[in-house]
Amino acid sequence: MKCPFCNAQVSRVLESREVDEGSSIRRRRECAKCSHRFTTYERLEVPNLMVVKKSGERELFNREKLSKGMYRAFEKRPVPAVKIEEIISEVERRARGFDSPEINSRKIGSLVMEELLSVDDVAYVRFASVYRSFATLDRFEKELKKIKKLHN
Q1: How many angstroms separate the CA atoms of 117 and 119, rounded?
Q2: Which residue, 141, 118, 119, 114, is CA-closest to 129?
Q3: CA quadruple 45, 46, 47, 48: dihedral positive or negative?
Q4: Other beta carbons less than 10 A from residue 132's beta carbon
Q5: Smallest Cα–Cα separation from 120: which of 64, 72, 54?
Q6: Of all helices (H) and strands (E), which one includes residue 149?
Q7: Which range of residues forms the domain containing residue 10?
């Protein structure tokens, strides 16, 4: 595995553990050259899943695209990266669990929002504001009121 810091090809595994209900392995590694530590994941290769966008355009499901949106929502929040990765994996697992080679992008967004709401309200609002394209402050306030009702 190539070191992300110095590009050396040799690293040693310090720790391995199963994640995502055994469908992935998380490995903690140390570079033999620069001694930096980094984490890698081994995942089971699964069949392609097509995402049908609002425009009707189809594209391959992209875990990295989902990951970027999730990490952006959790930016500066007290949620560990391991938990965020668990949420990303859960959304992907659920998206692939519909026994269909295609899924609507709105459905993926709904899955993400369900997961976020149970973990962090601020991340939920951040994601919702982009996902639902809040155009006015009133729309934003309605979403906040909805969250407050759920917590009361």
Answers
A1: 6
A2: 141
A3: negative
A4: 13
A5: 72
A6: helix 137-151
A7: 1-45
Positions of E strands within the chain: 11-19, 24-31, 37-43, 50-52, 58-60, 102-104
41 and 51, same domain (yes or no): no
| CA separation for the pair 64, 129 (Å, rounded) | 20
Instruction: Give CA–CA dist 116/7, Å, rounded.
Output: 35
Pairing of strands 50-52, 24-31: unpaired
Question: pTM, whole model, 2 decimals?
Answer: 0.65
Same domain (yes/no): 41, 53: no
Per run of 10 residues, the mean pLDDT along the chain (length 152 residues) is: 94 92 89 96 83 94 93 94 93 89 92 90 86 77 80 68
